[in-house]
Amino acid sequence: MRYVSTRDNSKEYSFKDVFVKGLADDGGLYVPTSLKKFSSNELSQLKNLNYNDLSTEIINQFSSDFISKNDLSSLIKKSYSTFREKEVVKISNIGDLKLLELFHGPTLAFKDIAMQFIGNLYEYYLTKNNKRINIVVATSGDTGAAAIDAIKGKSNLNIFVLHPNNRISPVQRKLMTTVEDENVFNIAIEGNFDDCQNIVKQMFSDLDFSKSINMSGVNSINWARIIAQAVYYFYTYFKLNEDKPISFSVPTGNFGDVFAGYLAKEMGLPIDKLIVATNENDILHRAISNGDYVSKKVKETLSPSMDIQLASNFERLIYYVNNSNSKITSDIMKKIKQNKYQINKSNLEIIQKDFVSECCDENETLEIIRENFVKNDIILDPHTAVGLGAAHKLSFNDCVVLSTAHPCKFPAATDNAINRHKELPSELQYVYGKEENFQLLKNSTDEVKNFVRSKL
Ligand SMILES: *Cc1c(COP(=O)(O)O)cnc(C)c1O
Questions:
Q1: DSSP output for 336-380
Q2: CB of 109 sitting under 6 A from ligand 1
Q3: CB neighbours of residue 65 within 10 Å
Q4: What atom in ligand 1 is closest to the CA of residue 405?
Q5: How far apart are CA 334 and CA 396, in angstroms?
Q6: Nearest atom (ligand 1) to Cα of 252
């Protein structure tokens, strides 16, 4: 399969380019030039596969010129062998709705599902080709832990993780900063997540720098993450075994997870609506409900992994709704940079065929956690609560809510709502008392570049 950049589709790339680089040199995101569309007959042949085999079938559609199906299959098995659920994900009931529990991996958030896969994919590529790379990634809390767990101790790889200082939960931070492997470097930035993400983007677009250190990215813009996430939409649809299209409510920050749902739909999976659920950082809700894609100041909320104003993956949707026109996409991205983009009426109509949106403020999030504790005896993490709240507010009565994190990662939110919290699973409790290691740096791309250089 061939790929192009959303900002210049005159040049084609291979899967290797796409996954090793993450972001295109022109600043755009990689997208495939065509998509496999499964017929209903083909879908029924995937229906009874276990999670690993289903992953192999879906991902192989995108990566077959890079890795053989056999190698892919063993790599996927290895990636999910550490999960607490044998089938990787678990579907449970919550009232009339379903929860898709995606947090049974090593760092207790859905990001493990894609990241464990990516970590092994890197190792496969680098050892085969005797290459070294440096991964630089910005995190709002969960990506970093998942990436570090996936990459720690692997040969030919270093990982540098930028997190916004004091703006992630202590458990999130400890899962990153207590890792001792020598190829792991944690950096706390005096700024918010968007600042961290901006620094990483600037490092990438400084081609002299990024090429000189063989820089690579594993942020949710990485196409390999998106395809690994598309798998659980398929899996859920097959497991629920309904005869009608189903809807998913997705707690959203960077638009990666929900874009994976869109990809599954474009590949022929009968999905009705994708609910984009946001916290008070509601740019995507404003965008999808009335076209207003103007970013405001980031607010700190109970669901910090969604405290994002500029959703990188939205660029892929912009590209698709503009008929894969990279000139138009580039122009829109310039407008977004000046914070002047309003989605036009015809684009908005196209977007609203697949997406609806809602936002939950802090009180609503707490109320959802309370209500479900009392009614259903479940402790929800605040991100999942936003997903559930959005589904309720939109009166979706039989959709699947993606449960993106284990509640023990966000004890402050559940303490606040119901005066209790979950402890970490016993095998992770060692992080509570362990020494942390990170470097505090100013919100400055140059400082980060210097730090990275000094470690190589
Ligand atoms: C990252 C994250 C999200 C948001 O996912 P995106 O792909 O950025 O939209 C939601 N919930 C949790 C717990 C997360 O870690």
A1: HHTT-EE--HHHHHHHHHHEEEEE--HHHHHHHHHHHHHHH--PP
A2: yes
A3: 11
A4: 13
A5: 36
A6: 9
CB 153 within 8 A of CB 181: yes
- Position in ligand 1 atom list of the atom nearest CA 308: 8
Catalytic annotation, pick one of 16, 36, 98, 111? 111
404 CA to middle of ligand 1, Å?
7
Most informative mutation of 173, 306, 357, 414 for ligand 1 (most atoms within 8 A of CB): 306
Asked if residue 147 lies in contact with residue 172, where contact means CB atoms within 8 angstroms, the answer is no
pLDDT band of residue 169 (cuts 50, 70, 90) is confident
Place of tokens 């946001």: 278
What secondary structure letter does DSSP report for 405?
Answer: B
Q: Could you tell me the distance, in angstroms and rounded to a whole number, from the CA of residue 251 to the centre of ligand 1?
A: 6
Q: What is the pLDDT of residues 381-439, one digit of tens each?
A: 999 999 999 999 999 999 999 999 999 999 989 999 999 888 899 989 999 899 999 99
Say if pTM beats, i.e. exceeds, 0.85: yes
DSSP string of 41-60, one letter each residue: HHHHHHTT--HHHHHHHHHH
111 is catalytic: yes
Q: Which residues pair with 369 in a beta bridge?
A: none
- CB distance 196 to ligand 1 below 6 Å: no
Residue for token digits 């009232």? 95
Ligand 1 centroid – CA 60 distance (Å) = 25
The alpha carbon of residue 271 and the mean position of all alpha carbons in its chain are separated, in whole angstroms, by 19
Count of alpha carbons within 13 Å of 90, Cβ hemisphere only?
13
Query: Could you give the domains of the chain?
Result: 90-108+223-418 (3.40.50.1100)
Atom of ligand 1 nearest to the CA of 220: 7
| pLDDT tens track for 2-31 | 999 999 999 999 999 999 888 898 989 999
Beta-strand relationship, 97-101 and 400-403: parallel
Q: Where are the alpha helices (DSSP H) in 130-241?
A: 142-151, 170-177, 193-205, 207-212, 223-240
Distance in Å, CA 305 to ligand 1 centroid: 6
Per-residue tokens: 233: 């939409």
Tokens 């896969």: give the residue. Answer: 117
